[in-house]
TrEMBL record:
This is Glucose-6-phosphate isomerase. The active site is at residues 351, 382, 510. CDD domains: SIS_PGI_1 (cd05015), SIS_PGI_2 (cd05016). It comes from Hyphococcus lacteus. Catalyzes the reversible isomerization of glucose-6-phosphate to fructose-6-phosphate. Keywords: Cytoplasm, Gluconeogenesis, Glycolysis, Isomerase. Its EC number is 5.3.1.9.
Amino acid sequence: MVEVTKTPEWKSLSADAEALASTNMRTLFADDPDRFERYSLEAAGLFLDFSKNKISEDAFDHLIALANAVDLEGTRSRMFAGEPINTTENRAVLHTALRDFSLRDYHVDGENVSPKIRTELKRIAAFAQSIHSGAAKGYSGKTLDTVVNIGIGGSDLGPQMVVEALRPYWLDGRRSFFVSNVDGQQLADTLAQINLETTLFVIASKTFTTQETMTNAESARKWFLDRGGKDVAKHFVALSTNRHAVEAFGIDPENMFQFWDWVGGRYSLWSAIGLSIALQVGFANFENLLKGAHLMDEHFRSASLRRNMPVLLALVGVWNRNFLGASAHAVLPYDQHLHRLPAYLQQADMESNGKRIGKDGAVLENKTGPIIFGEPGTNGQHAFYQLLHQGTDLISADFIAPAISHSELGDHHPKLLSNFLAQTEALMRGKADQEVRDELRADGLTKPEITALAPHKAFPGDRPSNSILMGKLTPETLGALIALYEHKIFCQGVIWGINSFDQWGVELGKVLAKSILPELSNLSEEKPSATSHDASTNGLIDRINDLRQRAKP
Ligand SMILES: O=P(O)(O)OC[C@H]1O[C@H](O)[C@H](O)[C@@H](O)[C@@H]1O
């Protein structure tokens, strides 16, 4: 494995960062009238402007050279070829195959998996059609107009984010609910809003062993049966790779839509996990989502590194993270329907690249994935942007907006977009101390007042951002946007030398929770003092048990 920090390209980039320390982005823009053209590009219906990053031509060249030094193109080819690039699980990474409409064949361990992908997609189409046409009915003969998707992580965030994003495409009269948390309140709140005769429960779990999902699924089935529901088969379907566990749960394999271990959980919305999307927006729109992603895949696999949108987004991220010291990255969609995108990307990015061990098993010298957070603009502006503009940490950001809204109501959308643009400009330009002083003087403040206030009102600027635009947020552009991020994450993982496709870091807590569970009391029982953990965990267990005992009716 190439030790990326030891490469000459890494050293050149460190020198580039030093060379840029004495200038600012304002100057870079003033000195280069072509900066916007140079550092922007269009692909798959998306437009990316990354010119508001503090990069120089040297830095740009060295970033491309770095991508070559780690053989990014070679690893990309290995991914598309179905090689087991997920090394710790010995698995291929082929979510792109799920949305490849070019009729290419994909092979995993010598097996052509493309026919079974197409078969499953046809089954999903047929099932969605039967629900939408009313041919499939509930036990009492009513149409199934409500979906409750029970899943967590990739089996929740992806479909939920997409269903929310495609609200303008919702089919009339259909409702979707997403239950993920093992906190029973979420399931109870959902069940209180639905009619069991018209509800389809979609149990989504790659492994079909996840505690939260299995607990919610059991409770939903009990609720259904306790209230007189019959014909469970008509009301419960499963989306999974684990046929055996689905059968053991009591769902007929006929009612199971499958996917495969070469689809990572956080990359699974393109698979059967997308059933809840197809049910809410129609299969044609689901297919358009896949087609949009495929367009981005084709761009990613064929464009030169210098004009390759996911590659450039990744490289700029590496620059900000490793050479300018950005510790976090904000995802700021200026589209209310994308309100779950930051949460979705938290899993996609942080579960993929939040790692400190390289592919060779050694502790990495370099920083890896940043903290991802975000909220839709303009809400975030009135909350945490203060820190983006004037805080002590450098935080990079992606601003994402459609030029045309699905609700062109009055001047809402131009106002929204003006905020989008103003924020990226303000982050880049900042406001110099002298500008602040001149303004305060013009406002009639005295010299001591100006001296006291000016530092607080100055903005350092030089805060990096990318702007991602599209015409309208459609299934196609959304698909391309998600694929853009998937490939960005992949490229960064390759550069940082990590396996972006496992997630061992979620295991320890799961195991410990299992051992703690028997130590917690139900309201009806008393438990002895906990002794098997550290003093804090024992103390908290005792305190919880005590609070629950005291609350006993
Ligand atoms: O789909 P499931 O097998 O139920 O997994 C649901 C989620 O839980 C796991 O703990 C992983 O961290 C996630 O990557 C996964 O998406």
